[in-house]
Specification:
binds magnesium ion; alpha+beta; binds 4-amino-1,4-dioxobutan-2-aminium adenosine-5'-monophosphate; 15 helices; 432 residues; five-stranded mixed β-barrel; single chain
Length: 432
């Protein structure tokens, strides 16, 4: 039995006979010689087949090995500076496993076509690199929270109420009654901190966003945390430490992928190493006015263009705090003595990637929550289960949500969030 090793392992070995298997990444040749670049999940390597040195079967299979055909091969690996990854395999035997006739993706194809072909485009070095970084990000989030003493906890996806505004709710016919797909775990997370105190999750969230921007998905993965006995600063500190940890892990584990993506890593190192900027919403308005000439009326939410302007000015993660109450969710805590603002924060990424984290300290005053629900046109009765958290042993607490595709998009410097996930769901696309 031949034992296969990965292309990366073969290159580490660097000499002698190796057995590898994978897919054909590039193919060219003549009547006597065929060059195949083979890829597997670990890397790519150039392989050369000389007709005069191999059996008829091997030569015939090599001739039939077109782009994305799958093969197994054995050969002598040697260093070769001219080869794409510095090594070449002089093939002794090659077996075609699955042919691939007429691979439909050519060079320089439109983004639309690549999106239609996403199931095949996943095999590209570009998508493979992003998916590897995505895997690191998910692992790093788990590690960060578990090391910090958080329990993993799960909330329902079918929910009877809203938490982040009715306009982005997806309604589902639930045995004849309308229910909604989860926009956030929050209302079902808060009850659990009375048992577990510190909890986190990474779960799908759904937003019926009618926006066709490079930042919006309708189905996204959200990392959320909720913490008992936490004040507003604790929430910001965890958000900052989490992002730093994720970036550190990607820099440790994915330098090759970052290179394939042409990512300038200086900004990643800065985010890992330097404290985030923290400013209030009111200060943000002053900065935008003095440095960018943008005037925003106090009380208006920051829009994409303003967040982007702020990110250009600050060139670092900026935590904006103390937003006007009117632009934020009903559960955010009023600032003492300033009922017009809340202890809510948005983490604005550098390089114009917008809001990555949204979080807050939670309002503890039962009557205030009810008032704000009513002001938003909601029936507080429907939220009774949630309001019980304030009736029985309420404690100061808070949490945040981080859009996982948003942070991947920024880490990889993607043009669109649609490449941060294998099969994106947006207003315009549910296929493939
Ligand atoms: O700011 P949001 O709406 O906050 C919440 O849902 C809170 N309940 C979270 C909490 O405190 N537990 O969403 C959190 C993050 C945003 O900062 C953004 O990164 C991401 O989720 N997000 C989206 N990402 C992609 N596409 C969308 N349509 C998104 N909507 C939100
Ligand atoms: Mg938000």
């Amino acid at each position: 039995m031949q034992s296969f090793i990965s292309i990366k392992e073969a290159m580490k070995k660097g000499h002698g006979l190796v057995h590898i298997r994978g897919w054909c990444y590039r193919a060219r040749g003549s009547n006597a010689l065929r060059f195949l670049v083979i890829r597997d999940s670990s890397d790519i390597i150039q392989c050369v087949i000389e007709k005069s040195l191999v059996s008829e079967e091997t030569w015939s299979d090599a001739q039939k090995t077109d782009i994305e055909a799958s093969i197994e091969l054995s050969g002598e690996i040697v260093e070769d500076k001219r080869a794409p990854t510095g090594f070449e395999i002089k093939v002794k035997e090659l077996k075609l496993i699955g042919e691939s006739i007429g691979w439909p993706i050519q060079k320089d194809q439109s983004t639309e076509l690549l999106a239609d072909m996403k199931h095949l485009w996943l095999r590209s070095r570009y998508m493979t690199s992003i998916m590897k970084i995505r895997s690191t990000v998910f692992g790093a989030i788990d590690e960060y929270f578990r090391r910090s003493g958080f329990y993993e906890y799960h909330s329902p996806i079918f929910q009877a109420t809203q938490a982040e505004g009715g306009s982005t709710l997806f309604s589902v016919n639930y045995f004849g009654k309308p229910v909604f797909l989860s926009q956030t775990w929050q209302l079902y997370a808060e009850p659990a901190i009375f048992a577990l105190e510190k909890i986190y999750t990474i779960a799908p969230a759904f937003r019926a966003e009618k926006s066709k921007t490079s930042r919006h998905l309708t189905e996204l993965w959200m990392c959320e945390m909720e913490m008992a006995w936490a004040n507003f600063k604790d929430i910001q500190d965890h958000g900052e430490a989490l992002i730093k940890y994720v970036v550190k892990k990607v820099l440790e584990q994915n330098m090759e992928e970052l290179k394939i993506l042409n990512r300038d890593i200086k900004i990643l190192e800065k985010v890992r190493d330097e404290p985030f900027l923290r400013i209030t919403y009111t200060e943000a308005l002053e900065i935008l006015k003095s440095k960018a000439g943008i005037e925003i009326e106090w009380g208006k939410d920051l829009r994409t263009i303003e967040e982007d302007e702020l990110s250009k000015i600050n060139k670092h993660f900026t935590i904006v705090t103390e937003y006007p109450k009117v632009v934020k969710a009903f559960y955010m805590k009023e600032v003492e003595g300033h009922p017009e603002v809340v202890n809510g924060c948005d983490f604005i990424a550098p390089e114009s990637y917008g809001e990555i984290i949204g979080g807050s300290e939670r309002e503890s005053d039962l009557e205030k929550i009810k008032e704000r629900l009513v002001a938003q046109g909601e029936d507080p009765e429907k939220y009774n289960f949630y309001l019980d958290t304030r009736r029985y042993g309420s404690v100061p607490h808070g949490g945040f949500g981080m859009g996982v595709e948003r942070i991947i998009s920024w880490i990889c410097h993607l043009e669109t969030i649609k490449d941060a996930i294998a099969f994106p769901r947006t207003m315009l696309r549910v296929n493939p």
